[in-house]
Amino acid sequence: MRPYKKNQYYFDMKKIISKIAIAFMTIMAISTLSSCNYNSLVEKEQTVDQAWAQVENQYQRRADLIPNLVNTVKGYSEHESETFIKVTQARSGLTEAYNAAEAVENPQQNIQQYQEAQSKLKGALDIYVNAVKEAYPDLKANQNFIDLQTQLEGTENRIATERERYTQAVKDYNTSIKKFPTTIYAGWFGFKEKEQFKAEAGANKAPKVEF
To answer: Which of 85, 104, 115, 166 gives 51 a disulfide partner, CB atoms 3.0 to 4.6 angstroms apart?
Structure first.
């Protein structure tokens, strides 16, 4: 009986050591893969954040131009004996949309709310511009107004470009964290799927600002 017990003991120990070795090799393999992919994911996430910063910069550029637009119209219309109702209402709507867009907190984490607010702001801006065109047909000859037209049109083009770059960066990042075996451990390091912009009606057309 003793030889049997001794042989069984060595057999059991061999199995235990074998399992430990396999577990160790598995851990090392995962660790090596995760270490390599971790750096790659960090770089991709940084690319997403940088692209988002550019999106916000362009939206802010548009927001900064709106008060200049309103002030230019106010200065031009000071000589008018009465205020045009459409312009006043449109300016009120523009102000409301402007404040709502500025009030969105953590835009990148609330991207759909941010997108909706920016879309409403763009719509209010279009309504305001059309109202001004009807009320003051000669205003489009004003140099300040011409300059604003150029700047706003350029900004809308930049917004479209930066949003496209952000969308591509997010697509690349999201695809990376969903691939095997990265998908197993991406969550361990806090890498989560990024939210995308939703395509808007007419998004495939170049934006145009007319006065």
So the answer is: 166
Q: Tell me the mean pLDDT in the region 186-210.
A: 66
Upper half-sphere CA count for residue 200 (Cβ side, 13 Å): 17
> Phi and psi of 9, rounded to 5°?
-60, -50
> Over the Cα atoms of the chain, what is R_g?
29
Number of C-beta neighbours around residue 25 at 10 A: 10
SS3 128: helix
Check residue 81 and give its pLDDT: 42
- N- to C-terminal Cα separation, the chain: 102
Provide the sign of the torsion angle of the four alpha carbons 161, 171, 63, 126, taken in this order. Answer: positive
Say how many CA atoms lie within 13 Å of 96 toward its Cβ.
11
Helix, coil or strand: residue 155: helix
The average pLDDT across 123-149 equals: 83
Could you tell me the pTM of the whole model?
A: 0.70
User: Measured between alpha carbons, how far is 122 from 153 in angstroms, rounded to an integer?
Assistant: 12
Q: Which one has a higher pLDDT value, 39 or 3?
A: 39
Please name the helix (run of DSSP H) or strand (run of DSSP E) that holds residue 121, with its range, or none.
Answer: helix 111-135
> Can you tell me the distance from the alpha carbon of 42 to that of 189, in angstroms, rounded to the nearest whole number?
10
pLDDT digits (tens, 9 = 90+) for 168-197: 999 999 998 888 777 777 787 788 888 888
Contact, 151 vs 23, CB < 8 A? no
> Which of 197, 184, 182, 195 shows the shortest CA–CA distance to 42?
182
